[in-house]
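All the exercises in this workshop are built on plain-text protein records. There is nothing in a record beyond a sequence line and a structure line. A learned vocabulary of local backbone shapes supplies the integers on the structure line. The question running through the whole workshop is how a given chain folds. Here is such a record, shown just as it appears in the course material:

***
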Amino acid sequence: MNAVDIAGLVHPALAVAFVFPFIGVVVNYAWQTRQRRLQLQSKEGGKSKIPPTVGAEHLRIGRWLSNMVVGLALIGLAHPIFTKMAKNQVWAEDSFRAWFVVLIFVATIASLVILNRARTKLWRGVFATLTGMGLVLLGCQPEIYRRGFEWYVSHYYYGITAALLMIFSLAIFPDIYQDRTNRWRMVHIVLNCFAVLLFVGQGFTGSRDLLEIPLSWQETHLYKCDFANQVCPP
């Protein structure tokens, strides 16, 4: 493996080592928070053995997870974009687009940072929108393999959707605690249950893609294969 191949392992390595363990922790705290709330609202005395700190821990670690998922998506987009740009000499032939992509990366990261600091609903909405737009624009670059012919099992589409849901969670979490009707809480629960399914799908599609993506020195030969008939030249 050369440097390009090793760099390609950064995204899945971070997912396995950090993001997926955090998903388990957040789901566990979410379940405990939900159970404690139901027990306190019950007619059997309103007592719970679950410590009251689970809600705060769920919020704190959930925010960490949301930021990690968006950061991981940016890393996953950056590797194919910049390696293929260098290989195809985009910096020399289309420098405007190359620098525009760099600007989008910087603006998306800055928007994510400001989103975490924004307090008013307006600015949270503005910077959540900018962060999401940055991800989508980066994903639209021609260097990204989106597996459009099988979008329903695409690692790219699963990942972008999950990242957008995490951005939405960062934007609405203050509203969850201020809304007396619990509508925002129910929206949060439903969308994040869907996000968990996407994360499971990411585990399957990511493992599949690691099997399908050849090492850089094997590409010349393997890309001559007939993938429809599953035949390669000798």
Notes: The chain has a mean pLDDT of 92. Residues 124 and 171 are 5 Å apart (CA to CA). The chain has one domain: 3-207.
